[in-house]
Amino acid sequence: MSEFIPVIGLEIHVQLATKSKMFCSCSTDYIGVKPNSHVCPVCLGLPGSLPLINEKAIMYAIRTALAMRCKVNTHTIFHRKHYFYPDLPKAYQISQYDLPLAVDGYLDVSEDDGETQRIRIQRLHLEEDAGKLVHSTASGRLMGAEYSLVDYNRAGVPLMEIVTHPDITSAKQAREFVTRLRQLVRYLGVSDGDMEAGSLRVDANISIMKPGCEYGEKVEVKNMNSLRALERALEYEYERQKEAKKEGKAIVSETRHWDDGANITIPSRSKEEAEDYRYFPDPDIPPLVVDERVIVQLCKELPELPWEVRSRFMSDYDLSSDEAEVLTERRDVALLMDELVKEGAPTKVASNWIRTEILRVLNERGISAEDLPVQTSEIAGLLSLVDRGDLSTTAAKEVFNLMLEKSINVEEAVKILGLSTGKLTGPELEAVIDKVLSENSDVVEEIRAGKDKKGKKIKFLQGIVMRETKGQADPKEVQSFIMSKI
Amino acid sequence: MKSSEFLKFSAFDLMSGYRKGEFIVSDVIETALEYIEINERNLNALITPMYEEARSRAWMLDAALARGEEPGSLFGVPVVIKDNITTDGVRTTCGSKMLENWIPPFSAHVVKCLERAGAVVIGKANMDEFAMGSSTEYSAFGPTLNPWDLSKVPGGSSGGSAASVAAGYAPVALGSDTGGSIRQPAAFCGVYGLKPTYGLVSRYGLVAFASSLDQIGPFARDLKDLALVLQIISEPDSCDATCVRKERPNYMEFLNVSSLEGFRVGYLSDYESLEIDEEVKKGVTEALKICQDAGAEIIEVELPISARYGLPCYYTIAPAEASSSLARFDGVRYGFSVEAEDLQELYLKSRGGGFGPEVKRRILIGTFVLSSSGYETYYLQAQKARKLVVKEFDEVFLKVDVLLLPTTPTLPFKRGEKISDPVKVYMADLFTIPVNLAGLPGLSMKLSSSSLGLPVGVQLVSKKFCEGDILKTASIIEQAVGPATTIMGGDRK
Amino acid sequence: MDITPEGLVEDIRRMARLAMIELNKEETKQIVEQFKSILDQLQALRELDTSDINHFPLDDRDPTPWRSDEVIMWNRYNEVLSQAPASEDGYFKVPQIVRDDRNEE
Fold first, then answer.
1. How far is C102 from chain B (nearest CA, A)?
2. Of the partner residues C74, C93, C99, the one whose CB lies closest to the CB of residue A39
3. Which residues on B lie below 8 Å from C76 (Cβ)?
4. Are A204 and A149 contained in the same domain?
5. Where are the domains of chain B?
6. Where are the domains of chain C?
7. Quick one: pLDDT at residue B489?
8. Both A166 and A80 in a single domain?
9. pLDDT tens across B330-343, in order?
């Protein structure tokens, strides 16, 4: 029996990281802020208020559209989308309908086998976010709450809506797509792209079909608040639809919520009638006209895109796909890699160092690479030392931590730790070895007496020497000195 | 000089008196407020007289002048503001139960302009609820009466503003016009009422009815006052994306005209056969003659598209936009709200209880023409038809500089006469609506009085942003017939 | 649209639901009567041949102006809250949005 395949389309809302809202000058900061304090007559929809478009929001949206190879419309219209809900102050949302800002782009996602799958972008448009609701139930859930509280701080924050064609063929691919999109908006600096914080929201439409046959009934899935939830919800829904088909049941075209606790999708409260949004062009907003030259300029100013950086790292720095993936996941980290290499750090060491030490520090401190309290040239210097063998990795970690702690450079840190860069060798090394041997004369005797068949005692002595020299000695040289002295 | 003489003064007369030290702002304002208190029992032109606010403002202005501060261009002039224009700290009801107690936390751009110029806002004028109506009978605060004949309507929806100026409450007032709501009451009350070109005056602070048609405009009893107020309120405003940024001309300069030589005045070729009151026709004829005598070329034109499709076009688009503008009144954030068990009940009952019958009717029509079953057939078609109306006017204005038309088909009608038949009421806007559809400027001015002493008005329309052409023509007519007069309590029939 | 009396009543009820306006029987009856005559007026539009009119929202108005991305605080939000029909702790308050009508298992 030929297998049903999933047919998935995604609708993603990306909150733009502008300072002010989409149609007014209120701050877009709404988390942890006193309710209803970042509001004004416009975003509250007070009678007599009028909207004014945020220039940055347009720039950010066009930038994103261009990065996804969309066609940007030079003339675009805002529409009103009507429905009644407490978080919608005007009882309509200013959005875009049949003349959106951009259409027809794509984003490639990579498969396990290294192949890429092209996911087409149907449209990208701008709209305003709604307020936030807090419900009076103990669980905070909407259902059955005796009353709800409304905070309009978030109302009017700019949103970019991105809709794909139903080109996605698995839950995993959907996750991969959102990961790529999230990475892209972060690279472009247009959004935090944080699903848990709500600055990136995903709704999915999923149906199943047998290859070559008709499309099945679409089910909309909402409330997936993480990449993991997205993948699991779609996997669940795929299975559920397959089961239904096998049992000969029809699939109802409906909206379902992902219940993260119960790991199932449940039908949303059914509406007697489909919502009629009565879209019409907003008469308060004349057509948005974007000069061709602005579009060309924005295209020129696009930073190197994540997939371009990844390719370059693989070819120029001779890194594996996985290594490049980690290094390019964040733009600030990728930039750091480039800078380190420019400052003379060897690529392999830099790659390792970033993936281990630096990412650890960035994550621990929750900072960006630019905020590291150490100069890039200093880090590069440190890495060169490691590469030359002048400093062991262990010592280097200590040095690095001290540098971070005290915002000092390599030389100072090394001095404070009492290390010497450059090797301990020749007579200086010999002196240390003599000291160690004399302090452990009993062991020396045993070795001389032939009681070290497995070489463990030699290793023991070596270890002491290495410790004493704080790893500054060349192990081979140590070994030959010891052998010669015994 | 009897202090009630103040009430007949124009804004310029008042400012001249202040400058010469003949009287002070508090004198004038006190007179106006006392007069209002007495006459409001009859006229009901104001929803909210602003006794305290006006008195303290007058006091402050007098003090400022005494200190030697430079007076603004409308210094000490009392102004009445239609109650759908927000005034910070003073309730703005839009003539509706829905906003009976709403106090806006901001003033409209035009109000700020007037206040910066030194004007004194003395009251918020009565109006048809949410600007929907042509008689001010649809107000939740009772009808306004026509100062010329208390059994007649003052027109609408800016009936209160027009009546205030006609009755002498203030020399100037502000109204709003979506389908004739300034011009028609101006005609019914025998004063000047101008609807500016769409986009000339900021709508920030005007509670929206139909956003692609609404404009705020001035009422006055003479052209100088009218031109001055227009100048002040048409200051560009970056808060309104539909308010154009081009420089405004000096409107007063258009009034220095003694001849219409080389000017082309158009009139509707079939106006004499139209179903309009004889007196109205006479008014148009008389006005045309005055223009001709002043050297204008009188040219016959036709507006068949506007005549046939103007009303249905408007009565599709305006209700559609209104259904959208008024959706925000849901009992949650402000306004009329009922205690309800659940959200749906809150919405249904607050909106059901807060809106009057005409508003509900228009919202429902509007909802219908925007719905998935009506959009293509009605709304989209109407917007396309609108383009044909625009095109028709464009062609006409290649042949003429200004159009001279009736403002409204009838003289002021009796209160209660039309209210039962909405379609009849809609017909009152036959000559005004196409002007809104095309976004053109339109002025209604008093020409004469009818045999029964009711005002007869006439309308002047010009190209976009050519208010100057209207003012020129109006000036010639004013020079012939004189400015508008007040009708004070004692003079009334 | 169904212009039979019954169809009209149903349409008006549907529009009233969409517009969230409660109409009593009397109001519904009145509006139905008026609706018909109003819609008759609007029918005239259908005569017009508008096939060669370009997409209406795009026109020769000045394009919409852009506002620079700067924050301006508005400090009078308390006045808005104080006029709210219902509020709690700085929030606007609304009654039950969704009833819980799941069966108790």
1. 17
2. C74
3. 105-106
4. yes
5. 3-256+441-491
6. 5-45
7. 64
8. yes
9. 999 999 999 999 99
Taking contacts as CB-CB distances below 8 angstroms, the residues of chain A near C63 are 286-289
CB-based burial label for A214 (10 Å; 0-12, 13-18, 19+): exposed
User: What distance separates the 2 farthest-apart alpha carbons in chain C?
Assistant: 63
B181 in catalytic set: yes
Q: Is there a contact between A18 and C69 (Cβ–Cβ < 8 Å)?
A: yes
Average confidence score pLDDT of chain B: 94
Cβ-contact A4, A241 below 8 angstroms: yes
- The one-letter amino acid code at B131 reads A
The predicted-structure confidence for B245-302, as pLDDT tens digits, reads as follows 999 999 999 998 999 999 999 999 877 777 889 999 999 999 999 999 999 999 999 9
Q: Is A91 on the interface with B (CB under 8 A)?
A: yes
Q: Looking at the complex, does the CB of residue A289 fall below 8 Å from at least one CB of chain B?
A: no
In this prediction the ipTM stands at 0.95
Question: Is B475 assigned a catalytic role?
Answer: no
Does B340 sit within 8 Å of C18, measured CB to CB? no
Amino acid at A395: A
Together in a domain, A246 and A320: no
* Nearest-angstrom CA–CA distance, B178 and B424: 18
- Reference B57, options B32, B92, B37; nearest CA is B32
**Where are the extended beta strands (E) located within A129-285?**
132-135, 147-151, 158-164, 200-209, 219-224, 255-259, 264-267, 280-281
Domains: count for chain A: 3
Would you call B104 an interface residue with chain A, using a CB distance cutoff of 8 Å?
Answer: yes
Contact partners of A by the rule of 3+ C-beta pairs under 8 A?
A: B, C
- CATH code: domain C5-45 is 1.10.20
Which residues in chain A touch residue B321, judged by CB atoms under 8 angstroms apart? 283
Q: What is the 3-state secondary structure (H, E, C) of B133-182?
A: CCCCCCCCCCCCCECCECCECCCCCCHHHHHHHHHCCCCEEEEEECCCCC
**Per-residue pLDDT reduced to its tens digit, B187-222:** 999 999 999 999 999 999 999 999 999 999 999 999
Alpha-carbon gap, residue C87 to C78, rounded angstroms: 11
Pick from B230, B203, B231: which is nearest to B219 by CA?
B230
Q: Judge contact between B84 and B207, C-beta under 8 A.
A: yes
Residue type, B363: I
- The residue segments making up the domain with residue A452 are 426-485
Nearest-Cα distance to chain A for C62, in Å, is 7
What is the crossing angle of helices C25-43 and B304-325, to 10°?
140
Q: Which residues of A15-40 are buried (b: 16+ CB within 10 A; e: fewer)?
A: bbbbebbbbbbbbbebeeeebbbbbb
Q: Quick check: C77 and B324 in contact, CB under 8 A? A: no
Give all chains having 3 or more CB-to-CB distances under 8 Å with chain C: A, B
Q: How far is CA C61 from CA A428, B212, B426, in A?
A: 86, 12, 28
User: A53 in contact with B at a CB cutoff of 8 Å?
Assistant: yes
pLDDT digits (tens, 9 = 90+) for C16-65: 999 999 999 889 988 888 888 888 888 888 888 877 776 667 777 889 99
Same domain, A412 and A450: no
Catalytic residue among B26, B96, B107, B181: B181
| CATH number for the domain formed by residue range(s) B3-256+441-491 | 3.90.1300.10
Which residues in chain A are closer than 8 Å to B238, comparing Cβ atoms?
52
Whether the CB-CB separation of C91 and A151 falls below 8 Å is answered with: yes
> Are residue A12 and residue A130 in the same domain, yes or no?
yes
Query: B445 in the Ramachandran plot: left (φ > 0), alpha (ψ -120 to 50) or beta?
Result: beta
Indicate whether A154 and A248 sit together in one domain. Answer: yes
Rounded CA-CA distance A96/A57 in Å is 14
Show residues of chain B in contact with A41, CB under 8 Å: 104-106
- Asked if the C-beta of C67 comes within 8 angstroms of chain A's C-beta atoms, the answer is yes
Instruction: Give the domain-ending residue among A417, A448, A464.
Output: A417
Question: A353 and A403: one domain?
Answer: yes
Nearest CA in chain A to C20: A84
**Interchain CB distance below 8 Å, B241 and A41:** no
